[in-house]
Amino acid sequence: MAAAIEAARTNAHIDIIIAERLDRLGKKILATGNGRCNFSNINASVDNYYGNDSNFTAWCLKRFTVNDTVNFFNQLGVFPKEEEKGKLYPFSGQASAVLDCLRNEAERLGIKAVTGFHAVSVGRRKNAFIIEAKDGRVLYTDRLIIAGGGCASPSLGSDGSCFELMRTLGHRVSELAPALVQMKTDTSAIKGLRGIKVNGLLRLIQNDRYIAEDEGEILFTDYGISGPPVFQLSARLPFNNNITASIDFMPEYSPKEIYDILEYRRDNLSYTTMENFFSGLLNKRLGNLIARRVGIEKLSFNVGGLDKQLLWSIASVIKDYRLEIKGTKGFENAQVTAGGVLTSDFDDKTMESRLIKGLYACGEVLDIYGDCGGYNLQWAWSSGRLAGKSAAEAMM
Ligand SMILES: Cc1cc2nc3c(=O)[nH]c(=O)nc-3n(C[C@H](O)[C@H](O)[C@H](O)COP(=O)(O)OP(=O)(O)OC[C@H]3O[C@@H](n4cnc5c(N)ncnc54)[C@H](O)[C@@H]3O)c2cc1C
Q: What's the N-to-C CA distance of the chain in angstroms?
């Protein structure tokens, strides 16, 4: 929609059609930001993006900046609200406001929407593109912008079919993987923790090195872990092997401070058993798992029996609780697709294909994805507007 709006604003003498496979436009927007639409982030820069060549985003993010996004939506009525870590939301807290303003503006500009149009093939006749839908309907156009997203959350429209369309046009598509998604872990390490939420520092470790970290609420599930830091760090999982997660359950304290806290508890609670030792410090069920990890199998173990070595072991497990990553919850649950149509076959100044004149691509269909926190929608707006502007200018 942003591409179509920018095209219509740039050149009033062209007919613009949005072809959408679902029965209405922009369904995914309603689901973003837990229904609040985290539509951008004031910190967005090239460093927040991944792909074979993340520098591809540089020119586009400079041409259509975060400020441009804020102004674009503010002009259409969506007043911005900045929240933690630079995340931007509509002040009203409703994703529907973002979708409504885009739809109203598209309508005002005379942009036509053809819904229920599932494009399954694209061909060329002379200089025109012929797009055929599953139900046999056909559209002809001089310029074509592919903005069909990736494979993440297919129930919201993006079923990966645009990768196939791009392949038939001769474009290469890199390996695909789900990102911004829950992580599956070794379940024995989280047995009994299902439903527990803790505040912690999550780290990813590869070859004994921390490669990323984020702090926040971590939710334990029957398959692994979820929550904001998990989604955030899952951006680093695609195409990276041998990654282990580590949780620091008391990031505010050093190992020595935790040792002192534990020693104090041991001395004051020496009359009780391990079953009660963590109560009031950590979640009880988590405490039981930590006890097991340091070799205390029986919860009837007397607290008074915790020697120096055991206290240090407990402190170090609290600071560094290791979980083997076994995968992710897949495209069905992912917010974005890592990988996509190779950007090396596109001009970063226009988003036009280097292989086929008049063909453009933008957003998630390209081999670019961003961190969690408004960066992916910012990329969709920036690249969409650049593609729309370029395509419309080429028809002047
Ligand atoms: C649950 C969820 C929450 C998210 N929250 C946020 C957030 O708060 N902030 C953020 O920055 N990002 C968020 N994202 C990611 C963000 O929504 C996407 O990166 C962004 O929408 C991609 O934009 P796009 O225009 O490239 O593709 P999409 O938004 O996926 O739009 C593609 C459109 O093309 C249509 N289409 C696909 N194939 C065809 C076809 N063959 N024929 C016709 N039409 C087709 C689809 O139906 C869809 O409407 C979230 C994603 C999900 C799934």
A: 21
Please report the pLDDT score of residue 83 as a whole number. 98
Whole-number Å distance between alpha carbons of 190 and 199: 16
Strand 144-146 to 359-361 pairing: parallel
**Per-position DSSP letters for 187-216, written without gaps between them:** GGGGTT-TT-EEEEEEEEEETTEEEEEEEE
Token pair of 10, please?
């740039």
- Cα of 149 from ligand 1 centre, angstroms: 5
Q: Which fold has domain 2-176+337-393?
A: FAD/NAD(P)-binding domain (3.50.50)
For residue 249, the one-letter residue type is: F
**Protein residue whose Cα sits closest to atom 41 of ligand 1:** 119
Determine the pLDDT at residue 240.
84
Q: How close is the Cα of 77 to the center of ligand 1, in Å?
A: 22
Domain range summary for the chain, segments of one domain joined by +: 2-176+337-393, 182-328
DSSP H helical segments within the chain, as ranges?
2-10, 27-31, 57-63, 66-75, 95-108, 161-168, 228-234, 255-268, 274-277, 284-293, 308-319, 330-333, 375-393
Q: Does 242 have pLDDT greater than 90?
A: no
Inter-CA distances, 233 with 91, 175, 333, 373, Å = 27, 19, 15, 12
Residues sharing a CB contact under 8 Å with residue 46, sequence separation 6 or more, in sequence order = 54, 55, 57, 58, 61
In this structure, the residue with its CA closest to atom 13 of ligand 1 is 32
| DSSP reduced 3-state for 243 | strand
pLDDT at position 327, please?
94
Q: What is the value of pTM for the model shown?
A: 0.95
Ligand 1 centroid to 377 CA: how many Å?
A: 8
Taking only Cα atoms into account, the Rg of the chain, rounded to an integer number of angstroms, comes to 25
- Mean pLDDT, to the nearest integer, of 141-147? 98
Q: Distance from CA of residue 284 to its chain's centroid? A: 32
Ligand 1-lining residues (CB < 6 angstroms): 19-22, 28, 31-33, 37-38, 117-119, 147-149, 152-153, 156-159, 161-162, 335-336, 363-365, 374-377, 380
Per-chain mean pLDDT for the chain: 97
For 329-370, what is each residue's pLDDT tens digit? 999 999 999 999 999 999 999 999 999 999 999 999 999 999
